[in-house]
């Protein structure tokens, strides 16, 4: 539908290409495209005219009563089917005047694409004729203009994404703009938290005892093979729900998740249910997590109502032992039986012996939340599930301890207003790292924001690894006991709120996306008033726009333009851009085009990058065809690391981009960089 064209991020200013037509009839024989044709109409006589349009798929013809584009009105259209529509009422035209017109056309991947506009004098029996070159003229001559020159392009009611109701074609199902309804589009305080004043850093000193940050999941003394670094990436847990789970799933993207019958068969509701009637010794058959069948008496099947995610987390991390203690008695697997991690749907075998069924029997079910059963293992085949959900009870417990310590240190002047965001990085062997972001009331007068990393030590490690307060005075043979668990402040894990962020982007002949990127950066600066970022564009001889001039005319706070000859090389372009950065204690954000940036991107980069400790690889959504940031249908790019934030000192330490191996190609250079960073 034409509505799909209006939703495109670049419509109507930045098309793929511009050209001219000699008559109002085109059939380029393309698929999945849209057209906007505009100019002036010159009547060959005075009088009343009728117009018609024919197309496959949908189209609209707009005409102004004069030469002003803003006065254009919808005259005729083609809706769901390819038929000819004509105007019911004539238009009075004068041959000595010109009239602005506009045609919109949208084609999918089926049928014969075409659009034609015809006219005829308002007389009975006359046929419609296609409007040809003698009666049309250019709105402006674009032959000498670059693709990013858009000041001359008219914006009209036809090109506006939200068409007023009186101009909406009636009865065209699918053409109307309707709200998307995705939960992730609802307002979230995370989006604007950067604008809240920061708490005085001195108020946070000595709130918690200091402790060394030494997680067990960090790879040490282990050689990583090519692209093996992906296996050492784990997901974070967040609270409150950020609604990043996608509801518009592609059918081929089957997940080990809530609606999956395999998920339910492997782990099963039976773990959370028990029979309500009296116990007896009749036998029931249940599938074991390994897919085999075992015999369980009803009296044995009284499960602990507090059963939760422990075993499931271990299993999804492939660490569960065989649940059958006597493997010799296992049934032989049937042909075609699914493996532990099969994603193919199979017919579920009956789980009850038919002769044993008692239809009068009832059962009760314990509460459960499948959201909390997910593991932090990064399943590259599951790309619609979004961020892991952190249990509210855990958040409340940790923050209650922290707020108590904060007020002990500051005389009770803080009140918790809102929990904006909590992110957890789990380490069951040592302790959990939390990023806590709180909205606080200070002295009952002012609202401030707190955004800090804290650490909850669960177990003691080697002497001196947990607390740095006692390492100088405590004897090596008998370290003093520590509270277990211990809420502490991890040293060397503080993020800098004012650190410079450099967006580095290599480009070649991507005019509309380069212009979009510059416009996004301008808007980012205008909305956040943040001057501590710059953009570095490495241009491989673009011919479709003057990138340097566009940067000069922009309102970005700082920029660097670097021109390089030859073919496009992403690795080389990124390395060239990073080499221009003189401050090694600033953040490099290896970036790409085709990205829609939220306003909190700068703060997200800063708080997830800690020099010598943390790098940041945000998971972005890859939009499906016809989608937009306002209608986000697609999937999460869980295996993409093309966007990567890292301190320049750390980038230099691991050797930068691999410009030799990825000299004449790109794709995989981000995974190779990840290998070296993790190693």
From TrEMBL:
Major site of localization recorded for this protein: Golgi
Ranges for domain PA14: 1-135
CC terms in the record's Gene Ontology section: Golgi cisterna membrane
E.C. numbers: 2.4.1.244
Signal peptide residue numbers: none
Class in the EC hierarchy, top level: transferase
Keyword tags: Golgi apparatus, Membrane, Signal-anchor, Transferase, Transmembrane, Transmembrane helix
Pfam families: CHGN
A molecular function (GO) term: N-acetyl-beta-glucosaminyl-derivative 4-beta-N-acetylgalactosaminyltransferase activity
Topological category with respect to the lipid bilayer: Single-pass type II membrane protein
Polar residues composition bias: residue spans: 294-307
Bias-annotated ranges (Acidic residues): 329-342
Main function: Transfers N-acetylgalactosamine (GalNAc) from UDP-GalNAc to N-acetylglucosamine-beta-benzyl with a beta-1,4-linkage to form N,N'-diacetyllactosediamine, GalNAc-beta-1,4-GlcNAc structures in N-linked glycans and probably O-linked glycans.
Family indicated by similarity: Belongs to the chondroitin N-acetylgalactosaminyltransferase family.
Protein name: Beta-1,4-N-acetylgalactosaminyltransferase
Species, as recorded: Poecilia mexicana
Lineage: Eukaryota, Metazoa, Chordata, Craniata, Vertebrata
């Amino acid at each position: 539908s034409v509505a799909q064209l209006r939703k495109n991020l670049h419509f109507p200013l930045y098309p793929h290409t511009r050209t001219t037509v000699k008559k109002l009839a085109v059939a380029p024989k393309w698929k999945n495209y849209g057209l906007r044709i505009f100019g002036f109409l010159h009547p060959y006589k005075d009088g009343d005219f009728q117009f018609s349009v024919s197309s496959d798929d949908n189209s609209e013809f707009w005409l102004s009563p004069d030469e002003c584009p803003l006065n254009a009105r919808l005259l005729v259209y083609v809706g769901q089917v390819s038929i000819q529509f004509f105007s019911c009422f004539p238009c009075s035209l004068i041959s000595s005047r010109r009239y602005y017109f506009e045609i919109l056309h949208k084609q999918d991947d089926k049928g014969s694409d075409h659009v034609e506009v015809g006219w005829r004098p308002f007389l009975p029996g006359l046929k419609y004729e296609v409007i040809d070159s003698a009666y049309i003229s250019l709105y402006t001559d674009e032959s000498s203009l670059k693709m990013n020159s858009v000041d001359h392009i008219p914006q009209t009611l036809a090109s506006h994404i939200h068409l007023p109701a009186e101009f909406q074609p009636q009865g065209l199902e699918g053409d109307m703009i309707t709200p998307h309804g995705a939960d992730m589009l609802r307002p979230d305080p995370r989006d604007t938290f950067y604008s809240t004043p920061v708490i005085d850093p001195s108020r946070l000193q000595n709130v918690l005892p200091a402790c060394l940050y030494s997680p067990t999941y960090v790879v040490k003394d282990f050689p990583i093979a090519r692209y093996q670094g992906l296996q050492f990436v784990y997901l974070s847990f967040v609270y409150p729900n950020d609604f990043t789970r996608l509801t518009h799933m592609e059918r081929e993207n089957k997940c080990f998740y809530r609606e999956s019958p395999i998920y339910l068969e492997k782990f099963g509701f039976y773990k959370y249910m028990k029979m309500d009637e009296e116990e007896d010794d009749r036998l029931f058959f249940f599938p074991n997590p390994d897919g085999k069948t075992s015999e369980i008496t009803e009296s044995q099947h009284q499960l602990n109502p507090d059963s939760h995610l422990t075993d499931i987390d271990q299993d999804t991390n492939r660490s569960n032992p065989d649940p059958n203690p006597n493997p010799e008695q296992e049934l032989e697997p049937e042909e075609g039986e699914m493996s532990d991690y099969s994603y193919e749907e199979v017919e579920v075998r009956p789980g009850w012996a038919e002769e044993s069924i008692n239809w009068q029997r009832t059962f009760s079910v314990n509460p459960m939340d499948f959201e909390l059963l997910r593991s932090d293992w990064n399943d590259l085949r599951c790309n619609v599930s979004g961020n892991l959900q952190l249990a509210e009870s855990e958040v409340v417990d940790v923050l209650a301890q922290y707020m108590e310590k904060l007020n002990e240190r500051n005389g009770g002047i803080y009140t918790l207003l809102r929990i904006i965001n909590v992110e957890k990085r789990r380490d069951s062997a040592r302790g959990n790292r939390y990023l806590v972001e709180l909205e606080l009331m200070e002295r009952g007068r002012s609202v401030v924001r707190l955004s800090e990393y804290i650490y909850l030590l669960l177990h003691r490690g080697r002497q001196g690894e947990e607390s740095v307060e006692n390492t100088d005075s405590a004897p090596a043979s008998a370290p003093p006991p520590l509270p277990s668990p211990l809420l502490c402040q991890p040293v060397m894990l503080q993020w800098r709120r004012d650190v410079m962020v450099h967006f580095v982007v290599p480009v070649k002949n991507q005019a509309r996306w380069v212009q979009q990127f510059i416009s996004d950066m301008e808007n980012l600066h205008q909305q956040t008033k943040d001057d501590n970022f710059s953009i570095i564009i490495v241009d491989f001889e673009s011919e479709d726009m003057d990138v340097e001039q566009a940067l000069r005319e922009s309102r970005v706070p700082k920029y660097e333009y670097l021109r390089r000859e030859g073919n496009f090389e992403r690795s080389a372009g990124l390395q060239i851009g990073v080499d221009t950065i003189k401050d090694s204690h600033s953040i490099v954000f290896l970036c790409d085009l085709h990205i829609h940036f939220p306003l909190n991107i700068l703060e997200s980069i800063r708080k997830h990058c800690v020099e010598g400790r943390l790098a940041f690889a945000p998971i972005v959504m890859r939009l499906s065809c016809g989608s937009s940031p306002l209608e986000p249908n697609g999937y999460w790019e869980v295996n993409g690391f093309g966007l990567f934030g890292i301190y320049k000192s750390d980038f230099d330490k691991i050797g930068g981009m691999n410009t030799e191996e990825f000299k004449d190609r790109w794709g995989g250079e981000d995974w190779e960089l990840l290998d070296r960073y993790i190693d």
